Amino acid sequence: MTESTTIRWEQDETGIVTLVLDDPAQSANTMNQAFRDSVKAVADRAEAEKDSIRGIIYTSAKKTFFAGGDLKDMIRIGPGNAQDAFDAGMSVKRALRRIETLGKPVVAAINGAALGGGYEIALAAHHRIALDAPGSRIGLPEVTLGLLPAGGGVTRTVRLMGLTDALLKVLLQGTQYTPRRALENGLVHEVATTPEEMLEKARAFIDAHPESHQPWDVKGYRIPGGTPSNPKFAANLPAFPANLKKQLAGAPMPAPRNIMAAAVEGSQVDFETAQTIEARYFTELVTGQISKNMIQAFFFDLQAVNSGASRPAGAEERPVRKVAVLGAGMMGAGIAYSCARAGIDVVLKDVSAEAAARGKAYSEKLLAKALSRGRTTEAKRDELLARITPTADPADLAGCDVVIEAVFEDTALKHKVFQEIQHIVEPDALLCSNTSTLPITVLAEGVERQADFIGLHFFSPVDKMPLVEIIKGGRTGDEALARAFDLVRRIKKTPIVVNDSRGFFTSRVIGHFINEGVAMVGEGIDPASVEQAAAQAGYPAKVLSLMDELTLTLPRRIREETRRAVEEAGGTWATHPADAVVDRMVDEFGRPGRSGGAGFYDYGEDGRRGLLWPGLREHFTEPGREIPFEDMRERMLFSEALDSVRCLEENVLTTVADANIGSVMGIGFPPWTGGVLQYINGYEGGLPGFVARARQLAERYGDRFLPPPLLVEKAEKGETFHD
Ligand code: NAI
């Protein structure tokens, strides 16, 4: 019999066996080989000693209940070891199943986070009790890494809550619930407030149910809500959110599709067959490139970025007491809310008391919504609102140790507002600008302490967008960078760090995506196909509609400013084929974008987007003009990836992780790629394949697709983009 090394068997005198998950070799329990051996050993012993056992409790000696699959292992699984991965998964499933069907009550005492494999262990128990520990989360987030829960997670959630709820609440969006919300949504049966209470409840369940079974092992059981016969059933279900329908329909996201298929097919067969189906669909995902891209980005890169790979080592952490937000418009209002939510006092300043109050009203609106959905309490709302002081009086900024400026995008105005307050705030206050395009080095010239000046580029809407791009100006000091980094983490956002350059990293790179879409319209391609190509590439926003949102006059202004700067520096300015389209749209047709009431799309009186402007067909489209659809998709993806390589060459970017995370979390680069540089790593044929394709696109569509020297060099050396 194999030994259990990671699960401790503790049996009390009444016959209750507590299986304590406690891997001695790691700080968290993971589904590694030692665990696989242990769970099998435990199942063997439970069967052998069945008569002396009254019930079984799963719990853990670690802070988290169980951390799930070992991603370092998973990223290495390829077609060559697919069978081993399949067999390993099946062996855990069989062992958990043997304990589940022993005929004894099995309880999961979930003492901390149970995500992925952790919740799957809990699902194999008849009764689940979660400890309401701070930060604890429960759910099956595998989909966010391009995978599916293959430890019985699909099979059991479908049988527990029915297909629709299992798919929508647990499997397809990978929602991570707090213990209380897990209870409300049927993921657990009870919540306990202390570990003692949790174990007491576990014992009480065993006492009350000497013979316990899963509902699906009871004769006559039917899956709640019935079962459809078609895996594409989401398309016919009004309850399915549009984004999921889109993922299931077109974008290259195999995980949602495999989850759907495993759930629907598995719902029509017996439990054991369903588990095999689940494993088969998992193996397909884990051996494919997309899960590797997503694990690289959303696990390894995200961890690197958040843990401070780009934060100057050794810089001391300093507390933030009070933040001054200058400008209470769309961005300022959102920044004030995000700071207050993190427990920081905010003084929100605008030109008039009314404008400042409107900025605060934005927080009131968000909180009213949160309250109506049960996501906050009246007390918490009041506490948060009390932290925001709206004002028009600069004197109220006294005592602020951080300033975040978000007034109009105008260098002279930004200089003016900093001059007005630099002697009122604390003498060593950190000075940040939320500019989206203006060079930080130039903005810093407006203040006396340039070393304390830095760019802090938030994304709209601030309360929802997880990323902040920190921009080091030419004279920004390390301490300012560390303070900015710590502030971003404090407000629970993800910081990437870049060096100053026009448009930094994010605004510059997204510009290439938009230009490419607009250029295609100029080439006579049907604009509806351009939009469809963006959607099928996996972009969250269609390209022409995004241009309308940003307004067509903005790139024109930036283009003119950049052209002037390049020419002043003695360089040559290359026009982009998109420029002519934008100029005609604005000058000839008077269609500057959504805020002007008309752009590539028509807009209703209420600002709602209507259909693509029929004039596009008349003035731009050449009937019968077509290019391969694959070229349309890849022109957008390549334009962003290639410029990101140039950002690395120019030292605008200093890490690969910043590029990957910034592109997906900030500017909507499709998540399945794992980000702009991981997209290149994972492209068919690797870097040489990417270089060859870039050259082909350059031949067909212009020199802007020529691979930059750094890319060619890496391809020739057989390297990839990794930190
Ligand atoms: P907005 O037009 O909504 O707000 C600007 C606010 O600044 C207005 O409320 C205005 O009254 C106020 N203001 C003007 N002069 C002022 C002064 N002297 N003192 C105090 N307040 C003053 O603009 P929005 O969209 O919030 O943008 C603000 C900044 O954030 C700009 O630099 C913009 O480029 C940048 N940004 C905008 C993003 C967006 O998606 N809108 C994204 C990221 C950055």
Commentary on this structure:
This is 3-hydroxyacyl-CoA dehydrogenase. Pathway: Lipid metabolism; fatty acid beta-oxidation; Lipid metabolism; butanoate metabolism. It catalyses: a (3S)-3-hydroxyacyl-CoA + NAD(+) = a 3-oxoacyl-CoA + NADH + H(+). The protein is of the alpha/beta class and 723 residues long. It has three domains: 7-287, 2-enoyl-CoA Hydratase, Chain A, domain 1 (Alpha-Beta Complex), CATH 3.90.226; 322-500, NAD(P)-binding Rossmann-like Domain (Rossmann fold, 3-Layer(aba) Sandwich); 507-717, N-(1-d-carboxylethyl)-l-norvaline Dehydrogenase, domain 2, CATH 1.10.1040. Helices cover 48% and strands 11% of the residues. It has 29 helices and 18 strands. An eight-stranded mixed beta sheet has the order 11-10-9-12-13-14-15-16, sandwiched between helices. It has a six-stranded mixed beta sheet with strand order 1-2-3-4-6-8, sandwiched between helices. Helix 1 runs parallel beside helix 3 (82-100), helix 12 crosses helix 26 and helix 20 (527-537) crosses helix 25. The longest helix has 21 residues, at 629-649. The mean pLDDT is 94. The structure holds 1,4-dihydronicotinamide adenine dinucleotide. 1,4-dihydronicotinamide adenine dinucleotide binds next to helix 13, helix 16 and strand 14.
